[in-house]
Design brief:
The chain has one helix and 39 strands. The protein is an all-beta fold. Among the domains are: 53 residues, no CATH class; 74 residues. The strands form four sheets. It has a 16-stranded parallel β-sheet that branches. Strands 5-7-10-18-21-24-27-30-33-36-39 form an eleven-stranded parallel β-sheet. The protein has a six-stranded mixed β-sheet with strand order 1-2-3-4-6-9, with no helix packed on it. β14 and β15 form a beta hairpin. The termini are far apart.
């Protein structure tokens, strides 16, 4: 951190006499200021006696991370290959506490064994910090005309190029529409999507799997964060994605794939906010919980799939005054209970973009208790559950 936090308030350093350049001075003195201007960023730095610390970014910031070729050095990060940083956390640490533009961190398709934490980043406008991962192309097809689907019927695409049953839970990119969809299932050469296909326009399709793999991501009191094309795999103590303490995040075309059986895939807590667009969240069968939204938090699941292979607990739970919004054909598949609402929680379903699907729960598809509400169940496709809905009226649960 800078040794003088008032420096972060500087909005104009014109004529300040502060030296500038793409390479930091070699023999700085404690408290010295320097305007760092390598390609893609303009950041005021201050030397704290040991390190150069970012203070404020003027305009947008673009950084690059390459685990194999990069180097964690402050003059790096301005390009691909050897010009990149080596770790995601180092790149995050170079983001200034105050930015007057968008921040984008491009990350190569490699495995980053890191517990990345983002906190203490703010913006003086409607800007975001984006972690932009790289998906891995698995297959493609040209000139395919999708079947859009409608309400309770999922969208499909069929092409002889697709290998039988290889692409369940992958991502499909519709080139003309420039939109992703999660592939719910495959039967021979037909792919069934989560929700509806974007359009019936003949177009090229690309199948993607995870490319950028990061152990965990944690946000603490951090808003305005977006993530694209990353996979998070958890460790023995930390959820794959952990959003807490008044944080907000939007995930697009991401994967949550814990390879440790003791961790949640997703936890959102303490007045935090999550939105998922076309994400695939899967918990191993050896553990019982997938996603938890708790303590005055909100989650909107849009065209996503939450899959749990087994276990004795809940796939997706919302509790303690939190709200879960399930929309655009989102699939909640498996668990003892697929969805649970408890302790003054609200579970809301919406059928726009295709009816949500709640299925394959060993006991209850949707269970509501302790002053909680489940709304919009008329637009839900229930299948394969022990019992589709269960409400504990004695504890003032309610389903409509």
């Amino acid at each position: 951190m800078p040794i003088d936090n008032t420096v972060a308030l500087l909005t104009d350093i014109t004529g300040s006499g502060i030296s500038t350049g793409a390479t930091v001075p070699g023999s700085p003195t404690t408290g010295e200021l320097f305007l760092h201007t390598p390609t893609g960023r303009k950041i005021l730095l201050q030397y704290d006696g040991t390190n150069w610390c970012p203070v404020r970014a003027y305009g947008s910031t673009t950084l690059y991370v390459n685990e194999t070729s990069g180097t964690d050095s402050i003059d790096k990060g301005s390009g691909t290959g050897t010009n990149a940083f080596a770790t995601v956390q180092y790149a995050v640490n170079q983001v200034a506490p105050v930015s007057s533009g968008d921040v984008i961190i491009y990350i190569t398709a490699e495995t980053y064994s890191e517990n990345v934490v983002i906190t203490g980043k703010s913006f003086d406008g409607d800007y975001t910090l984006l972690l932009s991962g790289t998906l891995t192309e698995e297959d493609s097809a040209t000139g395919v005309t999708p079947v859009v689907g409608a309400t309770s019927t999922q969208g499909t695409v069929t092409d002889a190029a697709f290998t039988s049953d290889a692409y369940d839970n992958f991502l499909c990119y519709f080139e003309t529409d420039a939109e992703y969809r999660v592939i719910d299932s495959q039967a021979s050469t037909t792919l069934t999507m989560v929700g509806l296909c974007p359009s019936a326009t003949s177009q090229d399709l690309t199948i993607y799997s995870a490319g950028t793999i990061i152990t965990t991501l944690t946000l603490i009191n951090q808003k305005q964060v977006e993530v694209f094309g990353c996979s998070f795999v958890a460790d023995s103590t930390t959820p794959a994605i952990n959003i807490t303490d008044h944080s907000s995040i939007t995930l697009t075309a991401c994967f949550g794939e814990p390879n440790d059986s003791t961790a949640y895939a997703v936890v959102v807590s303490d007045n935090s906010y999550l939105v998922t667009y076309y994400c695939m969240i899967e918990e191993p069968s050896t553990y019982s919980h997938n996603a938890s939204f708790r303590y005055n938090s909100h989650a909107t699941l849009y065209g996503s799939k939450f899959l749990i292979g087994g276990g004795s607990g809940t796939n997706v739970s919302t509790t303690y005054n939190s709200t879960l919004w399930v929309d655009f054909g989102t699939v909640i598949d498996g668990g003892q209970a697929a969805i649970s609402g408890s302790y003054s929680a609200t579970v809301q379903f919406d059928g726009g973009g295709g009816y949500p699907r709640v299925r394959n729960a060993t006991t209850y598809g949707l269970t509501i208790n302790f002053c909680s509400i489940g709304k919009g169940t008329g637009v839900v496709v229930f299948s394969g559950n022990g019992t589709d809905t269960y409400v504990v009226a004695a504890t003032f649960g309610y389903i409509s």
